[in-house]
């Protein structure tokens, strides 16, 4: 894809203050978009916009919590009001909140995970669909997870929410394809972000994990950003309602027999 691919476009990225969201914001800006960077953490959103500006791109920070549906509506409507368009929405904010085997998960823990990782994704998709369908097109990309495809003990609430995103994406794509809006999911495997570093712990644990990945390494945020940039661009003009797995082969692998 050439750097001019997204020239003149306007993109919004949630959770853009760190990790995958920051890498995507930087990439979409490098490809020519004006990027609106949302994050719960105002300082981190501002840092991302400064990185983009220093690299010669255009960005603005809009802090806020995407579990607040009114905030999400304001984020999207405000982007439309200021820029007169919204071409790309990367709905990316999320993280595992309630950890442990299912019988240990409280009602509150379950609800918190579903609120951030599924309900907020719905608020974002709904708000983006409203403006994009009226405008006659756009690309929505939701960040799911390899946890949607296979279970890791102790991550049940997060995994259930991330799996539900895939069906939300299909419903949105089917209902709004006729308006020109495309809706897809990106499925990262293990990605070296601050959240993943906290989850994995030591370098020894990271190395042991990476040895199980067919390509021999965890992804970096830029790997996911490249997939999102493709889904955002006209190169993927006939792609909707699908999932793009970026995981170094992690989810292609089954347990190996220990005989022979
Ligand atoms: N890193 C991985 O290995 C991995 C794997 C699969 C899926 N994912 C998914 O990728 C996405 C990004 O993860 P990451 O690893 O880059 O995490 P990260 O913690 O590095 O960045 C996430 C950002 O989202 C922001 N955020 C959290 N809650 C928010 C809210 N309510 N409203 C607005 N912003 C909020 C945080 O402040 C943070 O800056 C998440 O949806 C995560 O579930 C990550």
What does this structure look like?
It is a single chain. It contains eight helices and seven strands, in the order βαβαβαβαβαβαααβ. The model has no long low-confidence stretch (mean pLDDT 96). It is globular. It has a single domain (3-248), classed as NAD(P)-binding Rossmann-like Domain (Rossmann fold). Helix 4 links the parallel strand 4 and strand 5 (138-143). The protein is of the alpha/beta class and 260 residues long. Strands 3-2-1-4-5-6-7 form a seven-stranded parallel β-sheet, sandwiched between helices. Bound molecules: nicotinamide-adenine-dinucleotide. Nicotinamide-adenine-dinucleotide binds at residues 14-15, 17-21, 38-41, 44, 65-67, 92-95, 116, 143, 145-146, 188, 190-191, 193-196.
Keywords:
260 residues, alpha/beta, Rossmann fold, seven-stranded parallel sheet, 8 helices, 45% helix, 15% strand, binds nicotinamide-adenine-dinucleotide
Q: Let me know the largest β-sheet.
A: 7 strands, parallel
Examine the secondary-structure arrangement and name the CATH architecture.
Answer: 3-Layer(aba) Sandwich
Low-confidence segments, given as residue ranges, are none
Widest sheet: strand ordering = 3-2-1-4-5-6-7
The CATH topology is: Rossmann fold
Instruction: Give the helix level as a range of percent.
Output: 40-55%
Bound molecules: nicotinamide-adenine-dinucleotide
- Number of beta-strand segments: 7
What oligomeric arrangement do these chains adopt?
single chain
Distance between the termini: 46 Å
Number of structurally distinct domains: 1
Counting DSSP H or I runs of 4 or more residues, the number of helices is 8
Instruction: Provide mean pLDDT, rounded.
Output: 96
- Pairing-aware structural class of the strands and helices? alpha/beta
